[in-house]
Amino acid sequence: MRARDERSRLASTGLHTALVGASVIAVFPVAWVLLTSLKTDRDTWARPGELGTLGLGNYGQVLGDTQFLTWFGNSLLIATGTTLIGVLISATAGYAASRMRFPGQRPLMWLFLVTQMFPAAVLIVPLYNVLSDLGLLNSYAGLILAQCTIAVPYCAWMLKGYFDTIPVSIDEAGRIDGLTPFGTFWRLIVPLARPGISVTVFYAFITAWGEVAFASVFMQSEDRYPLPVGMATFVSDFKAEWGLLTAGSVLVMVPAAVVFFLVQRHLVAGLTAGGVKS
Amino acid sequence: MTTTTLPAPAEAPAPVPPRRRVRGLLTRHWYAWAMIAPVVLVLAVLVLYPLAHGVYLSLTDATEMNSGRTIGVNEIPATYEFIGLENYFSVLSGADGAFYPRLLWTVQWTVICVALHFTIGLALALLLNRALRMRTLYRMLLILPWAVPPFVAAFGWRLILNDEGGLLNAVLNVVGIPGVDWLGQPLAAKVSVIMVNVWLGVPFMMVALLGGLQTVPKELYEAAEVDGASPWQRFRAVTLPGLRPVSGTVILLGTIWTFNQFPVIALLTGGGPGGATNILVTEAYERAFQGIRDYAGAATYGAIIASMLVVFAFSYRRWLQRQASEVLG
Asked: What are the subcellular locations of this protein (chain B) (predicted)?
């Protein structure tokens, strides 16, 4: 058989040109923010052709003169909390939906799909009242729960699809060895579902990390702000601290990048299985 | 389980009493129900209840002025009234002036964005699905925008698209093309928000479709090749049908997400200039949080948005199922 991947030199050049072009477009805006953050002269951001003096001055200012580190910690706490709670509860629900037959199963799957359709922007007002009644306004727990409502429906839907691709015979073997259904899920299925779980971890973390609408309404005191809300205070009607904003943006991307590199190996496999079965 | 409420079942009764039936269901299904309980609880308290409350608000004339609130020690009770479907009439008749233009733009925005997400994502997935050098590097670079928080992406793009001192205009000027007020003119602003959203959304499609491509059996390609099918024919007859399960799901999700894409528009143009880039969701948010807060109006928009998406999802899935059954049999 002829190897399908033997290409002419021309085709190969075309392939690499297209991919390099696409990669440049994908990376460029991020690289541009990084470059701008290194420009220490005031107003050089407005003259894209000039570099001026490059240095880490903006970073020093962000870390030293603002509450950036507090906000960073808040965001880290909120995003990690959302990821842990969101993925855990959507995994158990996804497992039940995948393996057990019970009344309410189909409505549950529709619930996962339909709750993604309600614009968060519209839920804010009533949700504000609910959190206020529960005494959870301006608290980490309240915002974590609110962020879970964004992450959970997709994660549960995804994971149900992923669990469907794992053979049921594994569960049966576990049950024969005397494991409870939850034990089977926790000890056998979760380790096998690592790709699917990686995708949901990535999704939940990224979503919570960058979420603005809920965060800006539910957190009211400056020391509780997560990053997006806190950084918005760098921009006012009178001045925009572009140096602080760009340096802050670069620092914001670091944890997202870390999570991304931890899970990226699994992204393709995880997303596929979840997508094929729905 | 103890039997304190019911007498011991000495005789087998022919019709099962309702309470027994409930208990039977419980003993059989309590494990599954326990496992879904946390999710159902969270979604019920934090999505379904607020949603029901939102639907109720849409039937009232609630605004910031007549809602209950606390000022200092004084508690002002809510004085808004139930007005039935009046809000819906005013929105759907076009009397509020904003709904139909916003709807038209929302549909254009969704169709253009999802079409571009899908075609660009598919093209890149096809390129990456070959044996080639540096494939992992390309894949990582191309997924990168997905890992960028939307507010950072919006900010980075504003640095590029800015009217004064933006990079894009500077480059255009060098080439000799006059600069465009990318975020300040209605049409240019629409192009800008679509561009940024495409940049953000392609990686998800690409990764999902790349996975989908890897599930298409290699034998099918080989068989098609033996039959003398051209690359284009192989794409039409093998790749696209093989991708159908994945593409059905990602197009459905992509449509829902794009229709409700709040951060890109809110952070890039704030719906401006003059509301030109406001989609229904950002319009609803503006009503709820700007000027005199019109809670009822925002809730009405929300209810209309959600019902349109529910109708779309039902009919799309039915269409997919019909397609699938036609192909299979």
From this structure: Cell membrane
Give the residue among A96, A113, A67, A124 at the shortest CA–CA distance from A248: A67
Q: Residues A13, A143: one domain?
A: no
B75 sits in which H/E element: strand B74-76
The model's pLDDT over B292-304, given as tens digits with 9 standing for 90+, comes to 788 888 888 888 8
Same structural domain, A36 and A174: no
Residues of B in contact with A245 (CB under 8 A): 155
Mean pLDDT estimate for chain B: 82
Give the closest residue to A193 by CA, choosing from A84, A270, A265. A270
How much is the pTM? 0.84
Any chain A CB within 8 A of the CB of B141?
A: yes
Which of these, A155, A98, A107, lies nearest to B253 by C-alpha position? A155
The predicted structure's pLDDT at residue A265 = 78
- Residues 2 through 61 of chain A touching chain B, CB cutoff 8 Å: 4-5, 12, 15-16, 18-19, 22-23, 25-27, 29-30, 32-33, 36, 45-49
Domain identity same for A157 and A228: yes
Beta bridge partners of A39: A54
Mark yes or no for CB contact B170/A48 under 8 Å. Answer: yes
Interface size, chain A vs chain B, as Cβ–Cβ contacts under 8 Å: 279
SS (H, E, C) B184-207: CCHHHHHHHHHHHHHHHHHHHHHH
